[in-house]
Design brief:
76 residues, extended, mainly beta, 4-stranded antiparallel sheet
């Protein structure tokens, strides 16, 4: 069950659109011990739910992917 502790939704059911829609995650509130995110429908921008992240569950942001076709920088 550990894999579901930091669950993030990619699509949720929207009552206005009447179907499952992709969602955008928007930072709603920052508190000393947690952050609250709001899930917004990508079609009509309705709020579809919220997610709370406690200080212990935060992960550092992922590094951006390297572009294909460009060699990596080498330091001398």
């Amino acid at each position: 069950m550990e894999q579901f502790e930091s669950f993030r939704a990619s699509s949720l059911f929207c009552k206005k659109c009447n179907k499952a829609m992709p969602v955008r995650e928007k930072l709603l509130l920052v508190l000393p011990g947690k952050e609250i995110f709001d899930y917004l429908c990508s079609g009509c921008a309705s709020s579809l739910g919220q997610r709370e992240v406690t200080a212990g569950d935060r992960r550092p942001p992922a590094l951006p992917a390297r572009r294909a076709g460009r060699p990596p920088l080498r330091l001398r």
